[in-house]
Protein 1
Amino acid sequence: MKLDREFDTICAIATPLGQGGIGIVRISGPESLPILRLIFRPARKDCPFSSHRLYYGTIFNPETGKDVDEALCVYMKAPKTYTREDVVEIQCHSGPAVISHILSIVMSQGARLAEPGEFTKRAFLNGRISLDQAEAILDIIEAQGSGLAELGMAGLKGGLHEILASIKEELTYCLSAIEVAIDYPEEDAEILQEEEISKRLKEKVILPIKTLIESYEKTKIQRFGVNVILIGRPNAGKSSLLNALCLEERAIVTDIPGTTRDVVERQIEINGIPVTLMDTAGIRRAPDVIEAIGIKKIHEVAKKAKIFVWLIDISEGIVLEDQAVIDFLREYPNTKIIVAFNKIDKVKDANGLAKELISYLRENAPILSKVPFCLISAKRQKGLNKLTELIFEILTRDSGIETVKCAPNLRQKQVLERCISYLSSAFENINQKMSPDIVAIDLRKGLDLLGEITGETATEDILDKIFSNFCLGK
Ligand SMILES: Nc1nc2c(ncn2[C@@H]2O[C@H](COP(=O)(O)OP(=O)(O)OP(=O)(O)O)[C@@H](O)[C@H]2O)c(=O)[nH]1
Ligand SMILES: [Mg+2]
């Protein structure tokens, strides 16, 4: 599958561009070491450039003779490298000018700028990792929460690959049993034990694939995250809660009702799930012009919210104005609600008060008949764990997310779904004693599709699509 251009030497900045302590320029291909020798003056005389050793020295421009930066350089000899080719990494200071300069020097000595994902593509083409493992690397890089990062790591270690390998083995068995029947039709009654094949196809192939598809659904929130919106009357403490949960002064807090007008977002992580918290304008019945725009903005984001956290100032209790909040919530019957009684530091018997208020709400507003609640003080950072636990519980209730050790990504899931449709048709055809030729066509198609996930049967188009999702330098 190797193309000519995949043997040349490529280079890229492997770290994010910006000011930082260290930036890395990575080179892969046969010219890696010769290029390093041309642009690097090691501090040590007679530098042997032993593999996998760091050497201190200076990067210079061989055309002008000018020193560019001090650097630590490592040469890693093939095949024990990321790409399985000779690799050089230059660790220099990360300043946009200096690192771009070093990259251009490397290119002037014969390396080509790598395409996005090209290092990882070479790791795949050179047989170090399978396609599913390459995609697991993408998960690790893209993970906003530790949940997806863990799934990515499990995938890189070969979790998904092992499951697919055993499914493929079973499927290959079924296919060869069917093919024997095609080759020796007169003996098919003895050779083709249809019942056994159909049982094996169902239990060892179709069901495990369905489990994988389900595990995608279960881990979707880890992959894409969820939106949680803080709503409530002006001054309830929404902005204070956003700040407390994201541990920084993100939103403006004042004691003037109507402080927040825009939607203010912040990402946090709750037990591995990326959660986008949204602080919003206070909802009230007769808002001023700007507040009214703010409330309109809540509607714009509310459609995509999984949970509303309704903050109620427990020292004020529930007042007529809160009807505006209830009216708002009614428009989103599918979004989960949590009531958070805030400012518990201001009252004596917070528990007793909360119980009274929650019974009142549950009895008087049908959408709140089972609403869970918690007691917090956003200002004093009390009860926040209970709130995040409630959020997590709602997000994962009945999902079985904790049982998933590895899961396919969207592309892989879609391939699995196509695979299932062929295999289900094969399963039915076996049971209806259709001709083995017809069954074999579907089984072969299913096997091919599994190869699209692990890489054996992935076309150049599919590979291009996958690797173009990587960032430059990976
Ligand atoms: N005592 C006490 N005061 C709080 C608590 N949480 C918030 N406050 C105060 O309540 C006032 C309003 O807080 P904000 O966080 O701005 O309230 P908000 O809901 O964002 O208000 P708007 O943006 O106007 O809708 C501020 O003076 C906060 O310091 C709390 O837990 N205890
Ligand atoms: Mg606010």
Note: The mean pLDDT is 93.
Protein 2
Amino acid sequence: MISIKNVLILGAGTLGSRIGLQAAISGYQVTVYDIHESALQQSQKVMEKVLRYAVKMGMVNEEAKPEILARIQFTTDPNRAVADADIISESVTEEVSIKEKVWKQFGELAPAKTIFTTNTSYLLPSQFAHISGRPEKFCAFHFHDVFTARVVDIMPHPTTSEELIPILQDFGKKLNQVPVLVKKESPGYIFNFMLMALIGAAGKLKTHDIGSIEDIDKSWMVNFNMPMGPFGILDNIGLETAWHVTKDRPDSASKAFAALLKTYVDQGKLGEKSGEGFYKHPNPAYKNSDFLLS
Ligand SMILES: NC(=O)c1ccc[n+]([C@@H]2O[C@H](COP(=O)([O-])OP(=O)(O)OC[C@H]3O[C@@H](n4cnc5c(N)ncnc54)[C@H](O)[C@@H]3O)[C@@H](O)[C@H]2O)c1
């Protein structure tokens, strides 16, 4: 099994910063690459903030902070970034054309030893693995939030070498994640696929007027002792995102739910980020102690 020491993060945005920071916390040497210098500067700030959170939550010792940050380098130079990379974790913008461009570039530049992984949320690795020139070394390795939601999906495409799977399982555990193997390519991996089913069912119950938003959420919250139900989750995800994912589905239940979501989006009710969605935020009704009894 190859020994991973040097981790290259492609894309210094929300997820690249979090994965890079966790890799440094886990003791790896980390290089973060982005085409924008401003993204690298922002990434540094995000990492410092998340690191403070990790210390507060008892995940990291305060004294370890300087050595963790010292393990992270930032660069806009692709040659320097990839020179000694054992593994690449790609978190560039979720657009096929951008992923293709980046994987062509780094497929040509990377040393023979480098393992290629993508953190894509809804694309499939087979859409761009071949462009790297080394599809057998290419696998989806998909994080959720890294610090609070700690599942990492390992999803090979049809020609990924089987040897990569135990390496990524081991690496995922060292990154303080719970690795799960998605045996066949599937958009949304495992968790997001199940979440879509829950949300779709909740939407159908509402659009068929079988239950109110509050009663649908209460049913889920009480029986599973959850802090929010499917409509609370939708407010968290964002109603515009949910509408994008739902609107092109062919079945009539999804179409009806997309139409409902659109009425909210058209009013600017996008969920938590706009202050209102199915609930009013930042203090949604489902957080009130009497919500379940109301
Ligand atoms: N945000 C999430 O909650 C989340 C969760 C899991 C997975 N993901 C996935 O992670 C990936 C990144 O998402 P994000 O939310 O961090 O995006 P983001 O927009 O925050 O960051 C993307 C970064 O990619 C950089 N970039 C664009 N083109 C580039 C190029 N040619 N070379 C190098 N860098 C380039 C941008 O400058 C930007 O800094 C996506 O595939 C997304 O689906 C996101």
Note: The pocket of nicotinamide-adenine-dinucleotide is lined by residues 10-16, 34-36, 39, 91-94, 98, 101-102, 119-121, 142-143 (CB under 6 Å).
Protein 3
Amino acid sequence: MNPEAAPREKTGIPRNPGRHELGLSAKLLFPDRDIVERFYVPIIYTACRTCYSEMAPEEIFRKAVDGEFDQAKMQKLINGVIESGHGSTIEHIVFTFAISGVSRTLSHQLVRHRAGVAFDQQSQRYVKFKDAATMLPGTIAEADPGLRGKFEDQVEGSLDLYDELVKAGIPGEDARFVFPNATRTNLVMTANLRALIHMSGLRLCTMAQWEIRRLFQLIRHEIFQVSPFLGTFLAPKCVPLGYCDEMGNRDGHCPIRPHKDRVLDAWAEKAKAARAAGRELPVA
Ligand SMILES: Cc1cc2nc3c(=O)[nH]c(=O)nc-3n(C[C@H](O)[C@H](O)[C@H](O)COP(=O)(O)OP(=O)(O)OC[C@H]3O[C@@H](n4cnc5c(N)ncnc54)[C@H](O)[C@@H]3O)c2cc1C
């Protein structure tokens, strides 16, 4: 690190990774806006209404698609059901994304999600890379030029050695052992809406790693393009919770929602004041 470099500015919300062009992309492959508008809300609504109605699901669905139910009422029911955590109703709709140019650092985090999501990833066994691309983190791009140079030399050196190994007849599946975490990769990801909301809750949180946070900002943008209504459900987990539960935010540096410690402290204060006034606060 350059000893002359100014200390990094501390801000409330960690710097938005979207400020840097990262060269990664997330494109919604399926469904398009027409399909979402015509069928997605009706499918969720049918799942919700079936639980509370004598009507057969096929009839609810037909009426919903034919516009016989008020759109705002359908959305209100869906909102209530999602807020109540009845998540199976939103497992009936899926979104398929093409995710390109992300680092292996990101993909390793992404594929840790198991429930309601499917992945297919570019193979480092079967693909013989002629010109493997890599990701340069913003902190290193902005670091002392000597340090940045060392990083770039190391990464370039790894890719050169990969070429040499492959040219010497070493199988790609073994030569790849030299690839750095910075190596870019491509995936196809299909997730149902419940899984997508859960993943977004974790990965849009300011505690998430910058690259995966950026990816989920792009994913949210894609969902908004086809449905602003469904897009609003993709938010950091503190938004629907109403408080932050991250240990790393006990100091409250991220102000999106108050940390739960503060909420509990405020409750204890309120209970104390009530007790002093001869009342007990009701506890469910
Ligand atoms: C900020 C951050 C830091 C992280 N740091 C680390 C780290 O240092 N080391 C590390 O190893 N991982 C780390 N992770 C990964 C994390 O532990 C999870 O593996 C990852 O986020 C996947 O989430 P999930 O477990 O909710 O899985 P999902 O597959 O998305 O599961 C969705 C939900 O389904 C339920 N579920 C799924 N599978 C099961 C099951 N088998 N049994 C019971 N319930 C289940 C759970 O309620 C779960 O929350 C980190 C994640 C984040 C967001």
Note: Residues 17-124+183-236 form a domain with the Gyrase A; domain 2 fold (CATH 3.30.1360.170).
